[in-house]
Amino acid sequence: MKKTIQVKYCGIYLDCEGTYEPAEAQTYDYPGSPSQFEIDKVFVETIDIVELLSEDQIEDLELLSLEYLDDAHHSKEF
User: Fold this and answer.
1) Which of 70, 47, 35 lies closest to 17, judged by CA?
2) Which pick of 6, 37, 39, 71 has the fewest CB atoms within 10 Å?
3) What pLDDT does residue 76 have?
4) What are the CA-CA distances from residue 26 to residues 6, 68, 71 (Å)?
């Protein structure tokens, strides 16, 4: 499902837009799966800066977004 999450990264608020897949529980015959968030766009105000970010930065933002989505906190700082 599409989600937009605001995180604070390096002192800047960014809106991360992407696809969120919630975790699936483990069962007797299924090992389950962790939640995932794959970023498509990253906005500073109305400007998409995803092409300017490194893979490591995008991974950091995905992890911050997942923390928000999984823990239902309002914002996280990295």
Assistant:
1) 47
2) 71
3) 47
4) 30, 22, 19
